[in-house]
Amino acid sequence: MKNSLLGNYSVDLASVLDTISDAFFLLDQDFKFLFLNAKGEVLLGQKKEDLLDSSIYDHFSVGDNSVLAQILIRCLSSEERSVEDFFVSSLNRWFRVVAHCSAGNFLIIFSDIHEEKLVTRKLIQREEQLKRTLDTLPHVAFLARPGGENVYLNRKGLEYLGEVWPPGEVLNWKELVHPADYTRVINNWIRASRAGINVFEGEYRLRNYKGEYWWCFVKAEAVLDPAGEISLWLGTVTDIHRQKLAEEELRESEYFIYQLTESSPDLLTIYNIQQKLFSYVNQKIFSFLGYNPKDLNNLSLATIQTKVHPEDVSDFLKYHEEFTNATDTEVREMEYRVLNVEGEWRWLRVRGKVYQRSADGDVSHFIATTQDITDLKHGEDRQKEIVQLKNILDKKEEFISIASHELKTPITSIKASLQILKRLVGSNIDEKTLQVFIGKTNQQINKLVALVKDLIENSKSEDGNLNLNFSTFEIQEVINHSIDYCTDEDRIIVRNEVKELIEADKHKIEQVLINFISNANKYSAKGKEVYISAEKEDDYLKISVTDAGIGIPLDKQARVFEKFYRANGSGTVSGLGLGLYISAEIIKQHKGAYGVRSEEGRGSTFWFKIPFKQGR
After folding, report:
1. For residue range 53-84, what is the model confidence (pLDDT) as tens digits?
2. Which of 541, 527, 443 has the alpha carbon at shortest distance from 493?
3. Would the pTM of this model clear 0.70, i.e. be above it?
């Protein structure tokens, strides 16, 4: 039978079958070999001559025969070609078996697909590994065809859809896009699909299984084939719905705050301490000072301070710089003047507190509200002027009352003495009696002259015409002249330790010392000593006049050098209340100092000191 069957085949056909890369078998109805090609010999490991008339089952293992039998039975029952991948365990390789039954004979082709199977298996393994990886992501992940049809959706994606995605069902994720975002999605998809881009991303609203649209961030990158064409899209979908809602709320909140700040009657500013510039200024700056907020935003402190009044610059800078030490609850306040666009100084009151801190906890910004208090300040100034004017008027009334009394007393005394002298003229009055009345008259005239002199000196002081004539002299000479001018000179005790010459206005210093000695005499009981001391204190001459008089209350001592001021207890002592004021002005002109130490009932010490050399 073998020879007759082989005779049915031409030599040329056998040669052709020997050249193919697959193993070819021709079996009879008993599954015995009628023919096999060269590749078949290699597959079974035997020569044709040894294989003919043997069954195909004689050359495979029991397990392999079982699979092979199923293939041949299916082929026989259907009379159609059967194709099946077959792992031959005895050869440890994969083959694709194509079997065809015709006229009771079997045509079988074994194609070696082992390497292909290995590659496919690796691809499947990698795909499964990729899918497992994508399933662990907290975001929706997908694999899509070049047109956008999904071939895989991870577990998070299935949860988003709310149901298991049926295998093999095509889902185009673009169908889930909100209608309002669809055109934007398509345009971005077309742009991303162009050569050289291959990245698609954007924020869109996608429909979930409940029919709700949620904001998502979609990003996909193209996987290219060897030809450089897109074979697959690998993408993720991140839920940003809450973030979007928060951003919307933030925008609404910022808009509300913006409207609130812009409608505020106060000037609102935010100052960046670290960069030393104003990062926010609201529109109120325009009505306050006439400046445009855009011109002041991000303007440095150094530039703005040029608009601050020179007297307020130091406090202005200190206020801003010292905010680094402020607590979160502390509110700091200051007042300063700023130049507006019209060249006018406007008073501002600013109240600020910590607005923001850095990651290190340092104050980075503070927010402040500012009010224009110019009118209030002007009102305060006018009120102060009114109070000062009232004080001046009160003092003037007091002065007029005192002056009229003090001037009236010597004038009355002089008038009385002159009347007596007039009656005595022509009578046999002795010269001694006449000298008594003449002496009293001269004494009252001296008092009157002293009062008028105080008034003149006060007028010069107010007009700034208290001119000084400097000369060099010994202080003892001034002390002696001052004592000669005063009454009760016998009770004055002098202690002078200064021999150095002094440069000053001799007559003005003498006037001060006479005033101190006169006061000491006035307020001391008769017989009580008055002490004058002169000493050197560094580069200054210091003179003190001490009495044992009635003393000055502690709460009155600070005012004794004020104009027209007369301490309690001085009502019985004559004077205009100008002597100490004029003395103080003279010492100021000499760049010196003055003061008083006193204790009620135990007397007072008035002192002054001036430099030995005047730096003119």
Report:
1. 889 888 888 888 888 888 888 887 776 678 88
2. 527
3. no
